[in-house]
Amino acid sequence: MNKKILTLLVSVVIFGSSCSDFLSVNEKNPNNASAVSPKLLLPAALNNIATMMNTPGNYGFVYLWHGLWTISAGYSQPSQLLQYNLSNTSYQNPFSYSYLYGQNLTEIEKAATDPKDVYFLATAMIMKVYLMQNLVDCWGDVPYTEAFKANEGILKPKYDKQQAIYEDLILKLDAAIKLIQTAPAGVNAVTASSDIMFKGNMTLWAKFANTIKLRMLIHQSLMTGRDTYIKAAIATTASVGYLGAGESALVNPGYLESSGKTNPFYNSFYSAAGTQQDGGVSYWHAGRDAVDFMLAAADARIDRFFNKPATTGHAANFLGQSAPLLQSSFTSQMGYSKGVKGYMIGTYDKSAPILTDFESLFVQAEATERGYLAGSSAKTLYNAAMGQSFEYMGFSASTAAAYTAGDKATVNYDLATNKLALILQQKWISLNGIAPIEIWTDYRRTGIPSFIHFSEDKAKLNATPPVRLLIPQRELDNNNESVVAVGKISAFTSKIFWQNR
What we know:
Elements (H helix, E strand, L loop, with lengths): L2 H12 L4 H5 L14 H16 L2 H4 L1 H5 L3 E3 L7 H4 L9 H20 L6 H22 L2 E2 L15 E2 L1 H20 L20 H18 L7 H10 L12 E3 L12 H4 L16 E3 L1 H9 L5 H4 E2 L25 E2 L17 E4 L1 H13 L8 H15 L4 H8 L14 H12 L5 H11 L26 H6 L1 H7 L15
Antiparallel strand pairs: 1-5, 2-3, 4-8, 6-7
Helix pairs in contact: 1-3, 3-7, 3-8, 7-8, 8-9, 8-10, 9-10, 10-15, 15-16, 15-18, 16-17, 16-18
């Protein structure tokens, strides 16, 4: 069996993969990878992606840079993060893992040659788009048309233009949706045991694909001359719909209260035995922008996002703050209560989010506010998003309804003078600890929230955080000719194509 397939099958049991898996991914074995059934490959592929996306060490810099988290005063402050001093060795693992897991999805595509496996083919296509979109949103130009072709002898794939990748990914989503819609009778069902996200519900897979598509299109909504393209692309799959209330894309392979088998986000803070992880609970603390915003709005979710210090109310520092610096015992930690899923850290068996229903509803609300979704009400979608966020954090629908109907212009749609700012600010706070890349993307493309206090470190290299990550050193070492062809890259000025400001 090919080593990368072995890695996938093993990960069903061990709930994750290591860097050594990536380094050995192209080792050969005499057996044929295509002999492995797609139904055995899919759950491990989904689990690996969920683990990558929900491990704070991969994308936690977003929460720090955008006012949601900070680093406890009890630790030395990392200059790389406070000074925005990125290097080519910064955040290499998400890049490498994305291509490893993309290769795993390619193996599913290759194994799904039987027309009866069309559903497995469609799910693999959708998840590969999900990975590639995240790569573009973080790194810009990346290998695409020549990626995942090591078996064809392409070991040093070229880098493709980011806008061209986005446009092709949109077409891939359309194709995957069509495969689902036109599947012939008697196809092999995607069962709950192989689909650890939607339990074989292909209607939800189609909606998930269409939601990713809408999100990608709205990312481009501030680009000059893009309206016609966006409207035409939305129209092609408008009838499919989008993920709605109760339809979150959540992965759960059967997390256990056992070492190496817990929810990956939870595992960054607590062990399977319930003890605090070193560098978890005591390291990450609340960001002051988030705390101030929620306190001003009397947002009940603050007690679920963050735990109050023992002797005071909620309080926090700004990133890079030196004076007056609140000591760690006086600042709020990440929200946790043993056995309660609604807190940010959650429980060992809480499902890992890929794309929540409230993120989908916020995207739909923005799309409607911008005039892209006809027949929808931005207010209704916004209120629904808030309701689902409250439910996710363990509150009732009536609590959410009372909150959004209150007298705060930062919450009540009717009172807000800037509806887009309202939607995006509440999306920012709601996605805290859940969807870092989207938080980063929203700020880069819109400048919202506009009140964020960026690092106060006097030695920072730029007034605002980087707009992209740098091409990994591993690529410079192993694929240098392709990297050189991209041209000079700056973390502060080489904007992702949709950033039109």
